[in-house]
Amino acid sequence: MKILVLAPDVPATSRMPGSPRLFSLCRELSRLHELFLVTYCSSHERYQSFLNDPTTSHVFTRVEVLPDPPAAHWWGQQWHRLHLAAYFETRYRNAAYFKSIQHRIWSLCHQECIDLIYVDILPMTQYIDRKKGIPAIVDLHDSLTLLSRTMLKAERGWRNRLSAYLSVLSIQHLERSLGKTFDLIMTNSAVDEHVIKELSTSLNTLTIGNGVDMEYFSPDIGVTEKDKIVFTGVMGYAPNEDAALYFVNDIFPLVKVKRPEVQFWIVGSEPSERVKALTRISGVHVTGKVDDVRPYVRSASVFVCPLRVGSGVKNKILAAMAMQKATVATSMSIDGLDLADNREVLLADDPQDFADKVVRLLTDQKAAQQLGANGLARVQGQYSWGAMGKVLETAIQSIMVSRNGRTHRVR
Hints:
Helices cover about 40% and strands about 15% of the residues. By secondary structure, it is of the alpha/beta class. The strands form 2 sheets. Strands 3-2-1-4-5-6-7 form a 7-stranded parallel β-sheet, sandwiched between helices. The longest helix has 21 residues, at about 240-260. The radius of gyration is 22 Å and the shape is globular. It starts with a strand and ends in a 7-residue tail after the last helix. The mean pLDDT is about 90.
């Protein structure tokens, strides 16, 4: 089968910043099908990292990079606001550009005789036209409705709350109407799927959880640094920024009372100015982008995930557990994961409880080792990308049978 993959950015491999979900699922699909990638590209450096990664060979037959939208003129902005369009929509703000992207996608579908379109995340769904007759699926990863509702609750001030409320309305409308275009709507957790189902019970939905690259994120018997705590992620992403600020301001001082020499490392690309400013506090380190997060995680005594906002399964936790790291997290951080408090992870939702559990693991090496071993066993048995790819393949074949009355060919 020939599958066109439409993405908002060059897919991240396990060696690159960001979620490896799209690339990992595409790598599994490419074992049976021929894939064509149409994507935006946030930077030349990212594109080169993708091309230079040996794991990308033979995944995509062809890669097309889309041009960024031009600056919108005044009338386009007003037309966009009048339609209460979501912040990422281009059909009103840049009408000519919107049509040109649609034309480019459909031209490629015609040239390559595409059998199925696989769209990555909500913003890219706007370019797919059901009238063209090609079966299409979308992977939302997280429900933006759930995320925007969470952000609304956190806003202060009537102007910010009004803006956030309008954003919730526009996102809800888009996710509710996905069934008009897509044969299947995927999310990475049952929590997100439930929100989508609440919007419209007629939608065909499926949860395909996140996985982890067990070969790349593997345990290492190297030296663990005493009293070293690590948190990873793209630090320009609002939920990660909030988590870093929350840990440093509310939790870290409580840990330092019991462990004065403790060090907290914030590892990840695109740190905001507020995150960078945290280095003024003794014991806090902000790395910015690193070539490889594994040495930082492997050398940590404890991995933390203090997320308070956001949705979906957190790859960072799966990766840390695959490296056999004892983990302390908020309840929100493990949404969609089959993990239990005091078995594979320690859960804490207030600063003092979080700090106490971090201190417990820093103090009791045996308990930390056992927690890490339990986490590794769970990831090995349940969260490989191969298993997730099989679920996706079954779903795709079901769609093709429903559309065509037969199982579709594979390479």
